TrEMBL record:
<feature type="transmembrane region" description="Helical">
    <location>
        <begin position="43"/>
        <end position="62"/>
    </location>
</feature>
<feature type="transmembrane region" description="Helical">
    <location>
        <begin position="122"/>
        <end position="143"/>
    </location>
</feature>
<feature type="domain" description="Fatty acid hydroxylase">
    <location>
        <begin position="130"/>
        <end position="259"/>
    </location>
</feature>
<dbReference type="GO" id="GO:0008610">
    <property type="term" value="P:lipid biosynthetic process"/>
</dbReference>
<comment type="similarity">
    <text>Belongs to the sterol desaturase family.</text>
</comment>
<keyword id="KW-1133">Transmembrane helix</keyword>
<dbReference type="GO" id="GO:0016020">
    <property type="term" value="C:membrane"/>
</dbReference>
<dbReference type="InterPro" id="IPR006694">
    <property type="entry name" value="Fatty_acid_hydroxylase"/>
</dbReference>
<keyword id="KW-0812">Transmembrane</keyword>
<dbReference type="InterPro" id="IPR050307">
    <property type="entry name" value="Sterol_Desaturase_Related"/>
</dbReference>
<dbReference type="Pfam" id="PF04116">
    <property type="entry name" value="FA_hydroxylase"/>
</dbReference>
<keyword id="KW-0472">Membrane</keyword>
<dbReference type="GO" id="GO:0005506">
    <property type="term" value="F:iron ion binding"/>
</dbReference>
<dbReference type="GO" id="GO:0016491">
    <property type="term" value="F:oxidoreductase activity"/>
</dbReference>
<protein>
    <submittedName>
        <fullName>Delta(7)-sterol-C5(6)-desaturase-like</fullName>
    </submittedName>
</protein>
Length: 271
């Protein structure tokens, strides 16, 4: 068992060397506890991912494709985007604590994680992955919905994100502009799933960071119309009605629980 858990430590140590070794002298981070190295690695990676994806996304839709996807009067101001960046940066150190916590639990053998796909085989990996995503989808839907329905949670946590309630106040940078605890709560289903079924470690960590790219995508106000994906068209409705489209990657949970509102149908009604 110790040898098996050492695989996780070796893997996280490799990630630490790649990220921290690229940006900092080893004398700065080498003596730090392993868990703190992981947090620092996650923080650097999270910040880089947020800014690189956000700037590239905004440059493409607001400059290269100006007036193609977003009307000129619907483009958020630089001030609005800077405010979103400020909120996200204040929360980022706390966001990065969640993957650090999950890594700590994994390397100590508290979860059902496995290190190599060969440990279970590709078929089992794909089945576990599908069930994992269903658990995450279900958990995030209900966590998000309760952040609206439980008034103190909305007032003191989720309202921070919902000040962006019009098309010209939403941008890819709003994707992580949450109260720190709000952002953590909505990502908790990823960690809970680790205790319910076997999950591939690297896939779990990758999906936590893919969240940053996904949330940027669903706040750009561009409806890609890829069924059954819960894209920006659906999520923009959520920011304007507050009572629909709580789902994460797909529309299934909103469809099942009666909170789905279709942007295409909304456009037809307006016409």
């Amino acid at each position: 068992m110790d040898d098996y858990l050492n695989l996780f430590i070796e893997e996280t140590s490799f990630y630490n060397r790649v990220v921290l070794g690229t940006f900092l002298p080893e004398s700065w981070w080498g003596p730090l506890p392993h868990w703190f190295q992981g947090w620092l690695r996650n923080y650097i990676g999270g910040v880089l991912l947020y800014f690189i994806s956000g700037f590239l996304w905004c440059f493409y839709i607001y400059r290269l494709k100006r007036n193609v996807y977003i009307p000129k009067d619907a483009i958020p101001s630089n001030r609005a985007m800077l405010l979103q960046i400020g909120v996200a940066m204040k929360a980022m150190p706390f966001y990065c604590a969640l993957p650090s916590l999950s890594e700590y639990m994994i390397v100590n053998g508290w979860t059902k994680c496995f290190s190599r796909i060969s440990d279970v085989g590709w078929l089992s990996y794909l089945i576990y992955m599908a069930v994992y995503l269903v658990i995450v989808e279900f958990g995030i839907y209900w966590m998000h919905r309760e952040l609206h329905d439980i008034k103190p949670l909305y007032k003191y946590l989720h309202a921070t994100h919902h000040i962006y309630n019009k098309q010209n106040t939403l941008s890819p940078f709003a994707g992580l502009a949450f109260h720190p605890l709000d952002g953590i709560l909505q990502a908790v289903p990823h960690v809970v799933a680790l205790f319910l079924l076997p999950v591939h470690f690297t896939t779990h960590i990758a999906l936590l960071f893919i969240e940053a790219i996904w949330t940027a995508n669903i706040h750009d106000c561009i409806h890609a119309k890829v069924w059954p994906v819960m894209g920006a068209g659906y999520h923009t409705i959520h920011h304007t009605t507050y009572r629909h489209n709580y789902g994460h990657y797909t529309i299934w949970m909103d469809w099942m629980f009666g909170t789905l509102r279709d942007p295409v149908e909304d456009e037809v009604k307006k016409m």
